[in-house]
């Protein structure tokens, strides 16, 4: 990837401020994918210049599934642009982009929702209770200025890191990609076992019923749990993965399939 038009510091800052557009076009197929492409559009347009097909290809590549925190997004986009400016292949950029998505989503959500917002809420709520009418406005200003500062700092640091560590990242790209893959598999497995609920509601009676004698039963779900706890949720998650990756089924059809299986299984007394 060569022949790119160089980006200025202003272009990086503009892309950083466009992080506010990340949630535009949010959907349950690629989440923030369209928003990510929208954020990157002006910078990519300048980089590719008259190469319309190259720009279209780049935008299409960046419309894939993405989900991270908007306040930490500039760190990712700045590294992305710096790596692209240095001629790195998109697959290498994608490895970094995807590796940073999850960790920065967790850090960003925790910081903005469970640290900054409660802190300013406490401060300005007490001011409002004391009769200061401007407290709600001051709350909005304080929080939004703080989040803007985080975006600008993350964008600047991402550009600095991206331009100064390109060679190091290139050398260790394989290790980073493998580590990101292992972390992703671990996280997905944990989420599947924790949040996907699927239990077999079938209990068999063993032997003939005798009056006055407690009849023994065979619980299918208990047997499955002894073999492997949360086996059904994991198998169902693997089925979803297979349908998405191998068959190209969209998430809308998977949601509909899940609803149908859940209702049918419940009505037939198969699933709890």
Q: Secondary-structure map with pairings?
A:
Elements: H1 9-17, H2 33-48, H3 52-61, H4 73-85, H5 90-129, H6 135-164, H7 166-171, H8 173-195, E1 203-205, E2 217-219, H9 220-227, H10 231-245, H11 251-267
Helix pairs in contact: 1-2, 1-4, 1-6, 2-3, 4-5, 4-6, 5-6, 5-8
Please characterize this protein's 3D structure.
With 272 residues, the protein is mainly α. The longest helix is centred in the middle third of the chain and has 40 residues, at 90-129. It contains 11 helices and 2 strands. It has 2 domains: 9-176, no CATH class; 200-267, no CATH class. Helix 1 packs across helix 6 (135-164). The radius of gyration is 25 Å and the shape is extended. Strands 1-2 form a two-stranded antiparallel sheet. The chain starts with 8 loop residues before the first helix and ends in a 5-residue tail after the last helix.
Which features does this protein show?
2 domains; 69% helix; 2 strands; two-stranded antiparallel sheet; 272 residues; mainly alpha
Number of domains: 2
Strand content: under 5%
Distance between the termini: 54 Å
Instruction: List low-pLDDT spans.
Output: none
Number of helical stretches of at least 4 residues? 11
- Spatial strand order of the main sheet: 1-2
> Residue share in helices?
55-70%
Radius of gyration: 25 Å
What's the helix-strand series? Answer: HHHHHHHHEEHHH
The computed structural class is mainly alpha
Short description:
The protein is 69% helix and 2% strand. The chain is an all-alpha fold and 272 residues long. It is extended.
């Amino acid at each position: 990837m060569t022949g790119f038009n160089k980006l200025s510091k202003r272009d990086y800052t503009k892309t950083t401020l466009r992080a506010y557009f990340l949630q535009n076009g949010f959907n349950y197929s690629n989440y923030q994918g369209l928003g990510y492409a929208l954020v990157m559009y002006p910078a990519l347009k300048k980089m590719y210049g008259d190469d319309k097909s190259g720009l279209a290809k780049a935008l299409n590549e960046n419309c894939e599934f993405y989900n991270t925190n908007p306040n930490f997004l500039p760190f990712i986009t700045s590294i992305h642009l710096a790596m692209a400016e240095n001629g790195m292949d998109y697959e290498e950029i994608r490895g970094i982009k995807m590796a940073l998505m999850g960790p920065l989503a967790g850090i960003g959500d925790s910081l903005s929702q469970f640290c900054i917002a409660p802190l300013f809420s406490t401060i300005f709520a007490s001011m409002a209770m004391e009769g200061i009418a401007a407290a709600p406005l001051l709350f909005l200003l304080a929080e939004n200025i703080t989040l803007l500062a985080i975006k600008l700092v993350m964008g600047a640091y991402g550009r600095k890191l991206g331009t100064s560590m390109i060679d190091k990242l290139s050398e260790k790209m394989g290790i980073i990609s493998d580590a990101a893959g292992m972390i992703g598999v671990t996280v997905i497995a944990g989420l599947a076992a924790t949040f996907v609920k699927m239990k077999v509601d079938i209990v068999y009676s063993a032997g003939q019923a005798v009056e006055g004698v407690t009849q023994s039963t065979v619980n299918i779900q208990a047997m499955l749990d002894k073999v492997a706890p949360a086996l059904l949720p994991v198998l169902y998650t693997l089925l979803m993965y297979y349908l998405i990756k191998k068959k190209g089924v969209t998430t809308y059809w998977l949601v509909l399939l899940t609803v149908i299986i859940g209702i049918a299984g419940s009505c037939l007394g198969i699933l709890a």
